[in-house]
Amino acid sequence: MSSRALRQPLGLKLTSASFLALWCIVAAFPIFWITVMSFKSPVDAFSSNALNVVFGPHTRDTGHGISILDILLGIAVIWITARIMTKTLPGMIASYAPGGQKWAGWVIGVLVVAIGFLVTFFAILPAILDVLNPWFGPLGRDIIGLTTEHYKTVWVDRGFSNNFKNSMIVTTGVVTISLTVGTLAGYGLARSGSGLAFAILIIALVFRALPHSVLVAGYLPVFISSSEWLAPILGENAPTLYGKPFAVIAVLVAINQPFTIWMLRSFFQSIPAELDEAARVDGCNHFQAFRRVIMPVMWPGVITTGLFSFLLGYNDFLVTSLLLDAQNQTMVPAIAGMFSRETTTTDQVVAVAAAVSITAPLFFLVMVFQRQIVSGLTAGAVKG
Amino acid sequence: MNFKTFAAFVGPSVFMMLLFIAFPLASVLKQSFYVTQPIYDTVEVETCSPGFPDQICVTEQKSVPQLDEDGKIVEITTFVGLQSYRNVLELERAWNAVKTDGLMALQSIDFWKALRFTLTFTLITLPLVLGFGLGIALMINNASLAIKGPVIFISLLPFIITPVIGALSINWLFRGDGILTALIEWYLQRDVSMFAQAWTIEVLIMLYRVWHVAPFAAIVFYAGLQTVNSDALESAVIDGASRWQRMKYVVIPHLTPLIIFISMIHLMDAYRVFEEIVGFSSQGYVISLQWLTYDFLVPDQAGNRSISRASASAMLTMIGIAALLVPLLRRTWQDHKGDH
Asked: How many angstroms from the chain centroid is the CA of residue A303?
């Protein structure tokens, strides 16, 4: 758009910019707002006056609040952490981690920084501030009501950590199995070009469109009675598949397969076939070529596809709510249950805190993997 | 690649899809023609209560489920043909309702209510998603390089959020005297309740869906805008085309494949609308086809799931999917032939 002929008048630019700002507010507002709500006492959180929700006078009166000093020091800690993450950490990893194990360096580095941040922010900082606040007069007085008690209720009293663990089991299972199976299939489909490969892709496309409730209607009776029909094969201890996380993982992997193989196929097609042909000339068979030539270069596509598999497993409500029993419940059905059952406003705010807890990891996911997500969204479209 | 290697690569994936997609599909089709019920025996039960001068005894007929030697309820599966479909469709009742009270009377029957909402929802959100998506994409394209990254980050948030939670977060803004309801009340100077009638809930559900999907459309369109031929645009300017004409004759034709792609994906996904019903807890007013199946599958108070009715409603939902898929498959087939 550098050409003079295409330059836009100022008015148009301003209109465009202001509409874009409006969109950003619309996009972020609901998420921002429930985050604010989750830190307030019920009276403030559901107040019809926006200022009450933001400043939380009622919450402040009950003794939960933060002062200007708290805010400044909190921002300072967050800023320092961000500096360490973006500036110091990459340098340290570059100098300490051995060549091939960059990723291990990152995992360890990020974990150390994260733990350090949590300890500083939630343990050391409050202790220091308790001492400092009385010394600073007006700067140390609470101005914004803020309480973390709802998070405590959700995670400690309501056993949400158990739901979190179940969600992690299901998503980890879905991502690993889905990628292992899908990568092989995607590679096979990309390099085959036969009529059969095309037929498989078309059928996968049809499967992609199926409503998930149709499939669950097929699983339910079979899963509930599985100990009976599995008994001839597995004997006495045949499992009831209903309620088992591994059964749900298998179901979600299958539901995700059509998308995965289309995505990975188009990715593998963009890797020149000459690469593995060269390896084959040098005496590799297909599997060795895949192992030695394709695997080192496939990670960008696999990570992108993995992100979408993660989202499917993490966000799913229908399958997990129907096929898991109460002990193995994942986070999304747990919140939906919390929301529809509870009636008092305190319970509602607790549900809000749970909703924010489940959104936070997604927020960081977008932050870290923004580029991969965008490339994943556009990959399918641009290639048709 | 010979067949054996191909099979080794693709086998696990095909096996999973057959076992967990094709097989359940076939079994749902079969279930929809059968009903599984406990066998009931009619027994005469004499209940006596103390009375004066004689005991008062009542004999009544009771139906009790038959038990086998383990104490489990004996169930029998019978072929009922299209009965489950009739139970879901309630054709006779629907026809009578239409004859006496006109088309709107269909709203009293769950299936037709769900069908009406699902179709309206799909058709109304489609142009909105395309319009907003294109608008946002053009605006992002106009923005300076420094803010593009953050803007795309913010735009991704509504798309990436868990659907049930996204719907809930909008719900909380409007529920009771929620912050946005308060705003509307202040603007209209009257009491507003967003969850007391069907149409406001429907509007909220549609707004939520547009908020949720427009970022996806926007990012795909934005990627498409990067490849618009700037020579074509410049020659259009030289030929005296206005901004609007350039948009209509150069940019939109360039984006046509993407518009078709997004429409296809959106039609497929919008037809499966489900999470919104849960998030807005609107089942009293608004339901969708997929929610109907889900509701049959959830155990009722007695702990029974109406599997056969769920299967019938699932198969009826599939008819719509098939109608949507035909043009998509035709297009993929043509592309495939074009490649070779």
From this structure: 13
